[in-house]
Amino acid sequence: MPVRSDRSPDPVSDVVRWGAFSCALVPVVLLVSGASLAGAAGTAAGLTAVTCACRALCRRSERTAARLLAENPGRHRNRRGRIRTGAHGGGRYYEGRTPGE
Q: Is 10 within 8 Å of 59 (Cβ atoms)?
């Protein structure tokens, strides 16, 4: 398992910073390569819109995960995503009957 670096406590901010960097760099590259100013500005606007939407979705996801963790801290799920109910999550025999009855 990779060791997590403590340099960045907020990975969403890192992603947004890289998005902002690309919003500035891509139009410059387009202008240098001979694209029109309007095309470069349109590309910058599109990249900015996508970056803002991704930031909003990431923040919403973080808030939802934090809220769910605060509401149900003791609930454990098995690998199929179902909440475990008993000691082993079984429930094959009903009403106190055993396999020999």
A: no
Which amino acid is it at 1? M
Assign 83 to helix, strand or coil: strand
On the 0-12 / 13-18 / 19+ scale of CB atoms within 10 A, 27 is buried
Quote the pLDDT of residue 82: 63
What is d(CA 59, CA 5) in angstroms, rounded to the nearest whole number? 21
User: What is the pTM (predicted TM-score) of this model?
Assistant: 0.58
Q: Closest Cα partner for 23 from 47, 40, 2?
A: 47
Tokens of 5: 């670096």
